[in-house]
Amino acid sequence: MTLETIHADNRPHVVIIGAGFGGIWAAKELADQPVRVTLLDKNNYHTFQPLLYQVAAAEIEPEQIGYPVRGILRRMPNVTFTLAAVTAVDLTAQTVTTTQATLAYDYLILATGSVTQFFGTPGAAAHSFSLKTMEEGVRLRNHILTCFERAVHVPPAERRQLLTFVVVGGGPTGVEYAGALSELVYGPLRKDFPELDMADVSIVLLEAAGRVLGGMSESLSAYAARSLHKMKVVVQLEKRVTAVTGTAVTLHDGAQIPTNTVVWVAGVGGEGLARESGIEVLGNGRVSVLPTLQLPQHERVFAIGDLAAFPAADAASGHFLPMVAQVAIQQGIHAAQNIGRHQLGVPLAPFHYWDKGSMATIGRNKAVVDWHGRTFTGFLAWLIWGVIHIMYLIGFRNRIMVMLSWAWRYFTFEQTVRLIMPSSQAAWLAMAPEEVNETSAD
Amino acid sequence: MTLETIHADNRPHVVIIGAGFGGIWAAKELADQPVRVTLLDKNNYHTFQPLLYQVAAAEIEPEQIGYPVRGILRRMPNVTFTLAAVTAVDLTAQTVTTTQATLAYDYLILATGSVTQFFGTPGAAAHSFSLKTMEEGVRLRNHILTCFERAVHVPPAERRQLLTFVVVGGGPTGVEYAGALSELVYGPLRKDFPELDMADVSIVLLEAAGRVLGGMSESLSAYAARSLHKMKVVVQLEKRVTAVTGTAVTLHDGAQIPTNTVVWVAGVGGEGLARESGIEVLGNGRVSVLPTLQLPQHERVFAIGDLAAFPAADAASGHFLPMVAQVAIQQGIHAAQNIGRHQLGVPLAPFHYWDKGSMATIGRNKAVVDWHGRTFTGFLAWLIWGVIHIMYLIGFRNRIMVMLSWAWRYFTFEQTVRLIMPSSQAAWLAMAPEEVNETSAD
């Protein structure tokens, strides 16, 4: 089918912004409907975000958790992909403006996801590493490895600063990354750097609340904290970060931790396009949606996934559904089905979240699974975690490659992707320390 | 061993510049000698350059042909690695200055390799893509994919220009890349872009001489040209490029080919450090060496691999050994052994190249092998090529991953790494065409 025939097509035009879990599953569902679909993303690949932290820990290749969007869409002849950044949405004119063109839509699905939130913490945005995009995962991996390379050549105080890694936020991502970092550092990096004394290394996990994994059962929080402690991760609870610079993080009690590495996984908010386009958003940038996932007053516009603020079952407490893949997948399918209902003129159905439980992995044979109050830890939880993540990874080759990477690491204790690549990200090796501090989060 | 004990060590200090084939094999050989060794490289990984073209054709992940240098050195307690760029070599003071420090050496092995040569062709350096480093491989992959994405949205003339890919140089790399590009384009990209008409695509291989693969037997040149023709690659012989811009390549006969993509694999010369340090070099930047691989007048300095201009067996013709991995490996071992001889005070041995033959792969089941005049083509040559490349790939995991990538591609006809990553390299999608042309080779 050529572009011309697609444009001549008079089926309703559905535009989906974002090829994350929500956007892809919505497209899949719309593939069987009498509509034509344009899926927009600024990357030509879908990112499997739940494993990004493993990229940042040199465990897997970034390519293994990316899959070309056009490859996913091949069996969906009514779905077209456009690689473009969306610059504006006009709900009145019913148009989406991109860096390529302006598109008119009959239905719009906003699935732009979330971005890191720094809560206005001074210096945090400029000097921390985030873990939301493939580039951020690779940059953090490169930075960790560069810190070790640089530590070989500097005096002791600076060396300890370079070898102190602070993870801010004790949610699943923070726990998973702190554990993965411990396995990387005390495993292969210890062997790679016989010049360095591992006593100079410190991995710190800061959490503002009274326990890590606050969204799970308390017994799992305790298990995670114990496991991290055994892995030499210093877990500090009830610590709020008040400032970040390129050389230190400051806590609310005035304590300072000298470090060149702050990994900020303390908060996420809705991606900015909706707000910038004048769509009403909550304080954290998420869009309020009706139970049908429609925007209030805009029956042809849906918001799904991380971007959508959808009340949780215990809505009385003011909670919204968590920003996880399962919510996005289920909402993507549901929004697509509601578009079908709207075309048929039948009432739209309210969305109900089927909670498949939450989980996090901490390290080798160590994970936690919380399934409707039933909890699993240790090897069994770790197996469940692995199987489910492989299941939702797109692309059979990626599944095999990731499983092979895991098996390799499991049996050899080696994280093999210890590459500073692209090498421009090691450029600060050549700089004077002052410059380094100014640019370390670039 | 800590840095301090290494520095207090009074064994002779061998500095090796470059962790390519020559440098790594020299280090391995020196691991058993009573010396201490510092290996310097500006990357923290060894690059398996013979497969770089497959990275640029989206066939394999870049990480699969990179291996951490420190991982290679683990079993060599007398070898230290320093990640640094070398800025100068002083043969009189016997020092090497890097971005980290200045090192004094007792023996020096120059193994800095080669860089692309443009022979002063106007615009070639600024507007062509090279294939010497991992970054260049990734950048070319991203560029090809971006050309296809962009072609969807432009008028026909610009579309044909975006879909014309010109490879300059019909040596092994040019032949291999043209073939790999054909398989990428007419395989998965044809399916990925149903909006595009493949008749708008053209892959052109330009060669200045009368045949491709000039270093091999004539029958193999003919086979390669025939194979490429069948794969829709337009092979143009006796064509010299006189100018390159961001939108066209001009030939010596005045013909112009409109294109945004010129892949320049027409020539390589010695890397610049030797020349910049005042070491005498030939016109193409290679260092003349004695039969022992020593520099004339500098008995403690050796040059090996692509950097060294070593007369070939048919030296009367003025030829030097080719810039291939086998020469570098054998010279690396030989230089290390000669350092051992020099310490013992015995005469140094002249280097003799054991030619293991040359080979190139063209595509699925199609390759050429030239082994001392015996030639092999087709499936057998293709198998030999594969086995030998896997053998010299460093790291068991990389071997498995590459074999798996090949097997996957072989059975599914899919090049899966069709990712534009980092996404900044697709930024020109957002630009006006004039800007694009100015920056397309960035």
Short description:
The structure is a homodimer of 442-residue chains. Chain A is 34% helix and 23% strand. With 442 residues, chain A is of the alpha/beta class.
The percent range for strand residues of chain A is 15-25%
Q: Note the quaternary state here.
A: homodimer
Percentage of residues assigned to helices of chain A: 25-40%
Main pleated sheet of chain A: 6 strands, mixed
Count of DSSP E strands of chain A?
26
- How many angstroms does the end-to-end distance of chain A come to? 43 Å
Return the CATH architecture of the largest domain in chain A: 3-Layer(bba) Sandwich
CATH class of the largest domain in chain A, named Alpha Beta
Rg from alpha-carbon coordinates of chain A: 22 Å
List keywords for this structure.
26 strands; 14 helices; disordered C terminus; FAD/NAD(P)-binding domain; homodimer; about 35% helix; 2 domains; alpha/beta; about 450 residues
